[in-house]
């Protein structure tokens, strides 16, 4: 067994590998760029080596720097994580030439399966069911248009060396092929250093289901069940689960056996994932094989009890698998939510900045529920524009699917992230969505259910009553605390005020306290809008970010943040401003004029912090609705900004290469 390994990666996955290596008694070496000098994985490792500037192309993607770090520290093996150099056969061969072990498959398997074009050809030759498509070199946009027309729309344009949703575009018509081809090639080159793309038929309403395989160097191979990864945005997975709520035992077995046969055919030796798209009739088609550890591997670990990173290390060290196919049992249900630094209310655009608060829920087993959080950041970490925006992978396990989803819902409600925008509100809303809870999903779920983008969930009357009850209880404790401050001239002491008005958004609700007193813990009975009595019980204290308690029979975990004259309450995807007032204050508050937002209709604002890739117009140019105005890149994704109406460009305020803050003015319209 190795005594020291180097992790050629960063962030969450580097921390994940370090944890298992530490458990196995193996010393670890981290590598880091300028942007990651103070990163969590650098602190966790036994040693750390600086490998260059912040851009990945100048640090994490340079094999020579990784090999030099191995020689400097005496690392015997390299774990590549995912992304970066994890599927580069040349990197694997360069390590072998230096006598350093690659913790992953051999170059033959990487070449056969890691390249999406070659893997399609190999699968076809092996008689594996594949989606119709063009697997040869695509010369230019004209060639792409011709191929797409022959295959039939819609088509998927994909980077050959891609992953994580980078370098992927769906074209529904001929007009979308050219732009999709250019964007996919550009993203592929910047993310992977390889601009080759291929085109295949896009199966409408498919489910994305993948099989986890594990094989050693002694001819043993097996599958560890499946993961459902159909909840995707821009072809990037957002939430995953194991097992799939869609598969039956027969289909699972068939997919698993086919995946193992494919792995054996290329002498696969490590952990790998065979991805399929599955139609409504449970017909499955080979999509690709990822010759690395998957981002979503924790859900498989939770339902099988097998540490996949440990298995990778043991296989790389030459050990035989200690498991047989008959040993693999799927126990319970696991769900994973990917927490991203992105603004769900602005079409999920990337967000950068410092994590002023970062407080995940407690990990461990709590009754029948397990909570796990794989992360690579901590409070005070800087989220930069150079890397993937993922902050953490929050996972829950429970005996049944709905129990796991409910556990995830509560865990998300108690996950505190401040300083940047993040997608927790969307994930929390997803956990309540009927289609998700019923398992009636496809890869088109997000585009179908949120065609106009995500907006805060609007509370129904029962939920408004819960929010108003919390707001009233919070305000009572806040005022009581103020009354206890020394030197106050006119405290609110005296008899408990029974009648309140709670403003939730634009609604004014009457709250009447029926019984109870101000104390910590608090338990009061109140009525909202004359409804039945609700008992509100909690040990919340002023200043706590999480309100936990009961409102009536409902268990509630919500986040409380002070805002001007009130609180912002976040709960199950809802985010409302709440203010509890005495009736006279509410009467006067209704008379206050509303602030009118500034008119920005003649400005193109930068939707997120990023780098201007190109400006497609000139001053004085007339532009039609839908035409491209500019392209802005952030966190390895290119975002095309288009004209929403016919207009004339009056002034350009930015140039290609400029780094812009959110809402910076890119150009002005006449």
UniProtKB/TrEMBL annotation:
Its cofactor is biotin. Residues 120-317 form the ATP-grasp domain. PROSITE patterns: ATP_GRASP, BC, BIOTIN, BIOTINYL_LIPOYL, CPSASE_1, CPSASE_2. GO terms for molecular function: ATP binding; metal ion binding; propionyl-CoA carboxylase activity. Residues 594-670 form the Lipoyl-binding domain. It comes from the Bacteria. Keywords: ATP-binding, Biotin, Ligase, Lipid degradation, Lipid metabolism, Magnesium, Manganese, Metal-binding, Nucleotide-binding. Pathway: Metabolic intermediate metabolism; propanoyl-CoA degradation; succinyl-CoA from propanoyl-CoA: step 1/3. It is an enzyme of class 6 (ligase). Pfam families: Biotin_carb_C, Biotin_carb_N, Biotin_lipoyl, CPSase_L_D2, PCC_BT. GO terms for biological process: lipid catabolic process. It catalyses: propanoyl-CoA + hydrogencarbonate + ATP = (S)-methylmalonyl-CoA + ADP + phosphate + H(+). Its EC number is 6.4.1.3. Residues 1-451 form the Biotin carboxylation domain. PANTHER family: CARBOXYLASE:PYRUVATE/ACETYL-COA/PROPIONYL-COA CARBOXYLASE, METHYLCROTONOYL-COA CARBOXYLASE SUBUNIT ALPHA, MITOCHONDRIAL-RELATED. This is propionyl-CoA carboxylase. It comes from Rhizobium loti (Mesorhizobium loti). The lineage of its organism: Bacteria, Pseudomonadati, Pseudomonadota, Alphaproteobacteria, Hyphomicrobiales.
């Amino acid at each position: 067994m190795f005594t020291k390994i180097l992790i050629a990666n960063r962030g969450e996955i580097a921390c994940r590998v370090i944890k298992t290596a530490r458990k196995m008694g193996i010393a670890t070496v981290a590598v880091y760029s300028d942007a990651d000098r103070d990163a969590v994985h650098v602190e966790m490792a036994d040693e750390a080596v600086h490998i260059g500037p912040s851009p990945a192309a100048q640090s994490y993607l340079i094999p020579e720097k990784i090999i030099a770090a191995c020689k400097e520290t005496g690392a015997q093996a390299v774990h590549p994580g995912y992304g970066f150099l994890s599927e580069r056969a040349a990197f694997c061969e360069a390590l072998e030439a230096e006598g350093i072990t690659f913790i992953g498959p051999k170059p033959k398997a990487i070449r056969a399966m890691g390249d999406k074009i070659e893997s399609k050809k190999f699968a076809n030759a092996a008689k594996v069911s594949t989606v119709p498509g063009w697997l040869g070199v695509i010369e230019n946009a004209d060639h792409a248009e011709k191929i797409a027309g022959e295959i039939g729309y819609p088509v998927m344009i994909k980077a050959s060396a891609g992953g994580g949703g980078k370098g992927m575009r769906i074209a529904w018509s001929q007009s979308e092929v050219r732009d999709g081809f250019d964007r996919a090639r550009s993203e592929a080159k910047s993310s992977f250093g390889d601009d080759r793309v291929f085109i295949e038929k896009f199966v409408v309403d498919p489910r994305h289901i993948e099989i986890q395989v594990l094989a050693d160097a002694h001819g043993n191979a097996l599958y560890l069940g499946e993961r459902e990864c159909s909840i995707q945005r821009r072809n990037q997975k957002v939430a995953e689960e194991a097992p799939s709520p869609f598969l039956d035992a027969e289909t699972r077995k068939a997919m698993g056996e086919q995946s193992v046969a494919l792995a054996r055919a290329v002498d696969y030796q490590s952990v790998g994932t065979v991805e399929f798209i599955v139609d409504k009739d449970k017909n499955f088609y080979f999509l690709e094989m990822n010759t690395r550890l998957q981002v979503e591997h924790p859900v498989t670990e939770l339902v099988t009890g097998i540490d996949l990173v440990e298995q990778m290390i043991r296989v790389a060290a030459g050990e035989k698998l200690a498991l047989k196919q008959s040993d693999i049992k799927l126990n319970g249900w696991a769900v994973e939510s990917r927490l991203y630094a992105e603004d769900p209310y602005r079409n999920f655009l990337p967000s950068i900045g410092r994590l002023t608060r970062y407080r995940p829920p407690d990990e461990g087993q709590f009754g029948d529920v397990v909570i796990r959080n794989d992360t690579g950041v901590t409070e005070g970490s800087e989220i930069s524009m150079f890397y993937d925006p993922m902050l953490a992978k929050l996972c829950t396990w429970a005996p049944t699917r709905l129990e796991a989803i409910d556990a995830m819902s509560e865990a998300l409600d108690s996950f505190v992230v401040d300083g940047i925008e993040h997608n927790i509100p969307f994930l929390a809303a997803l956990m309540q969505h009927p289609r998700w809870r019923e398992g009636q999903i496809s890869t088109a779920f997000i585009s179908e259910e949120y065609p106009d983008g995500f907006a805060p969930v609007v509370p129904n009357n029962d939920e408004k009553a819960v929010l108003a009850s919390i707001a009233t209880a919070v305000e009572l404790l806040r005022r009581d605390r103020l009354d206890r401050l020394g030197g106050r001239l006119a405290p609110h002491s005296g008899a408990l005020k029974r009648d309140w008005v709670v403003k939730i958004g634009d609604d004014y609700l009457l709250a009447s306290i029926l019984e109870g007193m101000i104390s910590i813990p608090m338990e009061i009975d109140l009525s909202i809008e004359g409804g039945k009595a609700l008992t509100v019980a909690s040990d919340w204290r002023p200043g706590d970010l999480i309100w936990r308690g009961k409102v009536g029979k409902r268990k509630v975990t919500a986040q409380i943040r002070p805002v001007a004259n009130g609180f912002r309450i976040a709960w199950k995807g809802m985010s409302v401003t709440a203010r509890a007032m005495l009736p006279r204050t509410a009467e006067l508050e209704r008379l206050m004029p509303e602030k009118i937002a500034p008119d920005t209709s003649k400005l193109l604002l930068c939707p997120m912090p990023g780098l201007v890739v190109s400006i497609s117009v000139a001053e004085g140019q007339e532009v039609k609705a839908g035409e491209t105005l500019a392209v802005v890149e952030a966190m390895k994704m290119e975002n095309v900004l288009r004209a929403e109406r016919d207009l004339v460009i009056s002034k350009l305020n930015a140039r290609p290469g400029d780094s812009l803050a959110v809402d910076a003015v890119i150009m002005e319209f006449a």
